[in-house]
Amino acid sequence: MPIIARSTADKQQDWRQILAQSLKTAHDIRRYLELPSPSDEDQRNEQIASRQFPVLVPRPFLDLAEPGNPDDPITRQVLPDADETTVHPLFSSDPLAEADANVQPGIIHKYQGRALLLPATGCAVNCRYCFRRHFDYADNRISRAQWQQSLEYVRSDNSLSEIILSGGDPLMLQDDALHQLICDIEAIPHIRRLRIHSRLPVVIPQRLTAQLLQRLSNTRLNTTLVFHINHANEIGCELQQQLSIWKQSGITLLNQSVLLKGINDDAQILQQLSESLFESGVLPYYLHVLDRVQGAAHFDLPDDAARKIFRQLHSKLPGYLVPRLTREEAGKSGKTLIHML
Ligand code: SF4
Q1: Cα 297 to averaged position of ligand 1 atoms, centre (Å)
Q2: Ligand 1 binding pocket mutation candidate from 123, 128, 172 (most atoms within 8 A of CB)
Q3: Ligand 1 pocket check: which of 121, 126, 203 to mutate, most ligand atoms within 8 Å of Cβ?
Q4: What's the whole-number mean pLDDT along residues 310-339?
Q5: pLDDT in tens, 30-54
Q6: Is the bond preceding 236 in cis, omega lying within 30 degrees of 0?
Q7: Mean pLDDT for the stretch of residues 257-284
């Protein structure tokens, strides 16, 4: 099978151009990584899985994967799997019951003192384990007027002190739109903290533009950027270089990971991740067990296995490099620390 040309992205290339060149089919990922073809039955199921949750992966992220290895931890996160079509009775399309907390389009309010704004309705990568793979982003695509209503909701609730920009991926917004949004949030006196959750810089490090750095450094809001990195192989040279600049900025850099069977369910792999993050100026913060979303059961680990890995990790690292092992549960006002249970 012919091979797709490898990425030619360099650090000068605009992140939007790189995003536009993303791969969008399992077939193209296989060609790009020179992977063997699946059986006819697996291919049919892969196609069903791709219709349920489309394939999307930027080339710089795939460049971090080992060609020819279908078990590579990066490949497994983005290549659809026939197992996604198996319906599991304990898994659901909305494992965190976010529909109940979706108080109006574009805003989720489930934690005390914090509200999630969903300013962007897409991501730069579709991770096969994503707990929002069935989330109705179409219903949350909001007009400018509705956007003002979301801000009005925040303005009218004095108990809120932190805004979390989540997604989709909030860094999918252009810098100008993000600038305006931050200005609107800064104008709400009771909001003191801004937290941005993003996986975009991991898959396209060029998203960490100088303009973005400048904007986030110049706000009265205490700002945290939370990356979503699951394996040390995701921290390539380009991301490392960007982080070496960002860590000087005073913006708090954290990471949260998902514990994924076959990808990072090993204390040594997680140790390597924590150490690589810290060398890049990022503190490991949360290690989430999988949210039980339909289509991702093949990534799930029993809690006992998760706790065993956590204990091993704890024995290998200083406390500040050990992420908290947590589960998010529908209806609870915070995450549950499961290593305590
Ligand atoms: S970047 Fe985050 S929200 Fe987007 S698909 Fe991946 S896990 Fe889901």
Answers
A1: 16
A2: 123
A3: 126
A4: 90
A5: 999 999 999 999 999 999 999 999 9
A6: no
A7: 98
Q: Is the CB of 288 under 6 A from ligand 1?
A: no
Rounded to whole angstroms, the Cα distance separating 191 from 163 reads 7
**CATH topology for the 98-340 domain:** TIM Barrel (3.20.20)
Token pair, residue 318, equals 């200083």
- Measured distance CA(1)–CA(51) in Å, rounded: 23
Check whether 57 has a pLDDT greater than 90.
yes
CA-CA distance, 323 to 175, in Å (whole number)? 31
Angle at 261 between CA 257 and CA 266, to 5 degrees: 75
Residue 257 Cα to ligand 1 middle (Å): 11
Cα(127) to centroid(ligand 1), Å? 5
Residue 222 DSSP one-character state: E
Global pTM exceeds 0.90: yes
What Cα–Cα distance (Å) separates residue 40 from each residue in 32, 94, 189, 232, 260?
Answer: 20, 31, 59, 33, 27
Domain boundaries, the chain: 15-85, 98-340
pLDDT score of 338: 86
